[in-house]
Amino acid sequence: MTLARAQFALLAGVAATALVSIFAAQVALGLAAAIGLTRWAIGQAQPEALPAGAPLLAFSVWTLLAAAFSGDPVASHEDAKKLVLFVLLYLFTDSLAQAERRGRVLDAAFLGGSLLAAGALMEWAALGFDTLDNRPRSFVGHYMTASGLFMGIACLGAGRLLFSKDPWAAPPRLHARLLLSLLGGLAVLGLLRRSGLFALEGERLFVAALAAAAIAIALDGAPLAPGAWRGLTACAVSLSLAALLVSRTRSAWLGALFGLALLAIVRAPKLLWGLGVGLVVLAVLRPAPVVERLTLQDASSIDRLYMWRAGLDMIVDKPLFGHGPGRVVEIYPRYRWPEAPNPNAPHLHDNLLQIAAERGLPCVVWSLWLLAVLVRDSWLELRRASALAGACSLSVIAAVAVSGLFEYNFGDSEVLMLTLLATSLPYAARRERRLATG
Q1: Which of 1, 36, 83, 376 is the most exposed place for a label (fewest CB within 10 A)?
Q2: What is the total count of domains within the chain?
Q3: 342-353 as b/e: b if 16+ CB within 10 A
């Protein structure tokens, strides 16, 4: 196996396992990065100069400066290690410069997304994760992270379904076998969790099986019929939307609504009627998970207002370099308003406020610059030959950005990795054209 092929297979593993196990995804990322560096060192590959590189560099340098000026530099530098995840943008761009490879990695992501959502629905239906205080989180550590992933997979998959011209075709036998086998394993895992026997060991084996399945999809030599991917993608989208509904997470609902509406506007504005019909159906059926969340007078909404006020106070105190990455949870009690319902807060439930409080206002500028570049490049790709790549990227960016007004999803490594996969698609398509023309 060539180094390039090994890197590609490991990135398929990242795409699948980032949705169920951050540890497994980071192991695969570390191996893929090591191979990428080796290929660059021996001249087999050359790093792609991406337009997003300049704002990424500015953001990363300022983050490290903020960590250096932090009240606890050791803890802040530990938190800043997440910057290494940005290497995924370059690795995906390098490995996915072929339409078939982009398709296979997306298949791996939708396999992981289907299992993540199916796990959440299983928890909701059979394991007692059906209340506001005990929401389904599937394999990840927090229900907010899970809902952000449901949102991202739904938007990514909808973009793929809407903007591909491939006809519907029967799914490959390998995909069907792997999905059915893993769903069976998920059912067994649910029984183990219910009985309390070997649940942790079972989950680790399940994640390993998913990683192996993703690598098998990447390395499968059988040609794929056009449209054979549609079944798996539709499955992931359907399960993710259902899991998103029962997650009771309003910020992710809003992000998904914006991401899907953007796809409809760009693809065919008449599709907005479909979204409207869906909202009317929800209004008529009035499912409990939705109705109980249609309020701004609950404790979490009120707490957000006071978190944001505390965040503004933090920024006023240290506007240039902030208080240091990862330190909001430590300093929040000093800035907490007395009326706030909760005495502590892990973060400020807003991406821009959190970045400004941790890393200073200049870092907000760099993050907005990065966002603008990613949106521009996705839009340009949408208007060119690779509309699918641009649409998928734009939809995920819109969903994450809107959801991030009410949630610090930039701090979720899993959501960030999925976002980097989506935003790499336009750059990979552009690289493919450049390589084709010499």
Answers
A1: 1
A2: 1
A3: eeebebbbbbbb
> CB 78: neighbour CB atoms within 10 A?
13
**Nearest Cα residue to 12 out of 110, 97, 154, 147:** 110
What gap in Å lies between CA 29 and CA 41, rounded to an integer? 18
What torsion, rounded to 10 degrees, do the Cα atoms 431, 433, 437, 438 define? 10
- Which of the 8 DSSP states describes residue 20? T
* Residue (of 246, 287, 290, 239) closest to 124 by Cα position: 246
Q: What are phi and psi of 131, to 5 degrees?
A: -125, 165
What's the rounded Cα separation, in Å, for the pair 415 and 182?
22
pLDDT tens column, 264-282: 999 988 888 877 787 777 7
Nearest residue to 113 via CA among 303, 241, 221, 300: 241
Does residue 302 lie within any of the structural domains?
no
Helix axes 73-80, 53-68, angle to 10 degrees: 160
Question: What residue type is assigned to position 151 of the chain?
Answer: M
DSSP string, 148-159: HHHHHHHHHHHH
DSSP strand E in 11-124: where?
A: none
Residue range 99-126, pLDDT digits in tens: 999 999 999 999 999 999 999 999 999 9
Burial (0-12, 13-18, 19+ Cβ within 10 Å), 133? exposed
Structure tokens at 325: 């990455």
- What pTM value is reported for the model? 0.95
| 199, pLDDT greater than 90 | no
The CA radius of gyration of the chain, in Å to the nearest whole number, is: 21
Instruction: Using DSSP, state whether 131 is helix, strand or coil.
Output: strand
Q: How many helices (H) and strands (E) does the chain have?
A: 19, 0
Q: Has residue 320 been placed in a domain?
A: no
134 three-state secondary structure: strand
Q: Count of CB atoms within 10 A of residue 75's CB?
A: 16
368-384: b or e for each residue (b if 16 or more CB lie within 10 Å)? ebbbebbbebbbebbee
pLDDT of residue 390: 96
Can you tell me the distance from the alpha carbon of 50 to that of 93, in angstroms, rounded to the nearest whole number?
9
* Beta-carbon contacts of residue 203 (< 8 Å; ≥ 6 apart): 139, 189
Amino acid (1-letter code) at residue 160: R
DSSP letter for each residue of 104-143:
HHHHHHHHHHHHHHHHHHHHHHHSS--BTTB---TTSS-H
CB 310 within 8 A of CB 336: yes
Asked if the structure places residue 334 within a domain, the reply is no
Domain that holds residue 160: 3-296+348-437
Give domain status of residue 84, yes or no.
yes
